[in-house]
Amino acid sequence: MTMDPARAQSMSDHHAKSDEHADLEGAAMGKGESGAMEALNEHRLREAERIAEALVFASATPIPGKAIAEKLPQGVDVSAVMEQLSRSYAQRGVNLVRVGDAWAFRTAADLSFLIRKDETEVRKLSRAGLEVMAIIAYHQPVTRAEIEDVRGVATSRGTLDVLLESGWVRMRGRRRTPGRPVTYGTTPAFLDHFGLEELRDLPGMEELKGAGLLSSRIPSSFQVPQPPANDDLAEDEDPITQMDLEELGLLTPMGEADD
């Protein structure tokens, strides 16, 4: 039996329209699911930002990103959350800043002159203290002997004690060399005080010259040391142990700080 050509064409057009309609419905359904997923992700991100904001606000000291991540919804990228939150605060009176691997709220740089802390007396470092502080910052991990080699003079224990008490310098570990000398490095408090995100933000050659901190007569071959990218122990360092601290007189045998 032969079908009428016109009827055959009509049925073909009908099937084509049905298939097109099905494709449109599938596309719409897929778009709806995608939109719902995007909305859900957006909600999770906003909620994560609120949590992170609360954690940083409530912390008296810079809070590590790892500690923030533990409180965020599972699967949320803490770095993305903090960067977005930092951008949100960029034009406000307080800024969210990164301090090493931690985060903190700080007064916007252009408004810091309005904030006074008359009740806090800041201990000024001596010239020797400043020199040792700079050497440790740029050369860490560095031993006392290496500090003296750079300065060309002996470094008193008192100078290192002042820097340790300031909270800007810490004992990193012990060098795997004869005598196992203690190595020194900076702390997150050092970065926070000087407004640095990481050690690589320390002033370079041109910045130091511009600030008048380098003599114009320095050798042309002189190079400012490149600070390390992080606080990880070097290959030739071992971590400081409680026994080390006891030997150095920084802890009593019971593990309490020796006043």
Automatic annotation (TrEMBL):
Which terms are listed as keywords in the entry?
Cell cycle, Cell division, Chromosome partition, Cytoplasm
Q: Which Gene3D superfamilies match?
A: Winged helix-like DNA-binding domain superfamily/Winged helix DNA-binding domain
What residue spans carry the Basic and acidic residues bias annotation? Answer: 12-22
Acidic residues bias (residue ranges): 232-247
| Signal peptide start and end residues | none
- PANTHER family (UniProt xref): SEGREGATION AND CONDENSATION PROTEIN B
**Protein name according to UniProt:** Segregation and condensation protein B
